[in-house]
Amino acid sequence: MKRIATIVALLLATQMMAFAQDWDPGGVLKKLSARAANAVDVNLDQSMLQFAGGFLDPKDPQQAKAKKIIAGLKGIYVHNYEFDKAGDYTPQDVDAIRAQVQGPDWSKVVNVRSKTDGENVTVYFKKEGNEFKGLVVIATEPTELTFVNIVGPIRPEDLAELGGQFGIPKVQVDQNSSKKGNDK
Amino acid sequence: MVAISNVMSAAAVPARDLSFEDLVHEHERMVFSIAYRFLQNAAAAEEVAQDVFLDLFRNLSRLESAAHVTFWLRRVACHRSIDYARRNRNAASEVSWDDLGDLAPGDGRVKHNEDPMLSKRLRQVVATLPEKMRMVIILRYQEDAGLEEIAQAMKIPLNTVKSTLHRAHALLREKIGTAIGEGNI
Amino acid sequence: MNDKLEQELKKALRRTDPPAGFAERVLARAAKEEQAKLAREKRRFQWFGMSGLRLGVTCALCLIVAASGMIYQHERHQQGEQAKEQLMLALRITSSKLEIANQGIRQINSPEQRPE
Asked: Which pTM was predicted?
């Protein structure tokens, strides 16, 4: 009976760890999640990615792309929080996360502000030597926060595969016919 | 995503990738023109053209190449235009010739050897053709589509395209001949 | 004899420009549709997320009870499908944010990119 109880405890612990945060300095993500009106916290470490990958349908174009992207990755952690009103999160909340990508291995790729809805998106990548080892995206809007942490070797072509809206394939255009659709 | 991946990698992207936005800009004229020429109403044409592009947005993962996109858009534009006309048969029959005048093709300048009156009359006559015949004419002469392409776009047999085109020519000659005088065309 | 008629038809039936702002309106509708779809997925995720722990506990208990190998298989399949849904949602969210950044870079690099 004691052995069974130990097994149960271990299994439960494994389940909890599957939902563990990737990086959560001072538990800020946990606090944001609790404060948000709607929260999405996806934590997929390497084993969970492999597990999920086993259920991807290769015949579905989107899922086939996903399988390609996650191959070799060590983790995908996505946190998206929607708040009822502006001011429900503070710049300090965001700064705590940004501090995680300030080390020498990290480079800021782009910082973009959308004119239509004021969304600010910053993309960082981690490089070790010539290899890309990770990607972080921090997107802030007055009532929404998104943090993405992709751990592992993310290749530029993988990034291209993610597409504008995931699942929409890039349409290849022949070099010789690049101006199809010219008006008459 | 090409832009970020370019920043990450010094290697040039081998082929140009188009996003949905690129496709809209590339094909908006084609899609709108098919709808407009068929429906002869700018508001209706915009509604149909928007719906065509939203269909593209939802189905783009199934399309394999730029050529496939062009073919697909043309086919959906045809069918949606015809469906719209059938659903709004009463409204569509109220043709405003002023609409045609406001959105004349080209840049408005009369080119040498062009007879704008003849062109206008032809457009008016085409607008009165039966739906299937009108669409065949639009695809053939506005879109420069081959007969096989028209057959595939409209999902009708090739022989039907040929016979429809033949009848359309006869009808147009009859109507234009009456208006301007026999023997001109 | 058809040649003259065909030439005149080609001249008469030329493409016309859509009204100003057409492309922007299309893109706005598409973006709205995508946001609505993402919102539905997030709500579905939240429903799954709440039951995820219960499923995890249920799975552990099933292992212990081992009443039937089929029960374990069924739960494992459910967990796998959930994990897959989470993965797809994560990728969609990531993709939507990266596209904003990507558009920013394209605007900076090629302000005259769009044909008139």
From this structure: 0.63
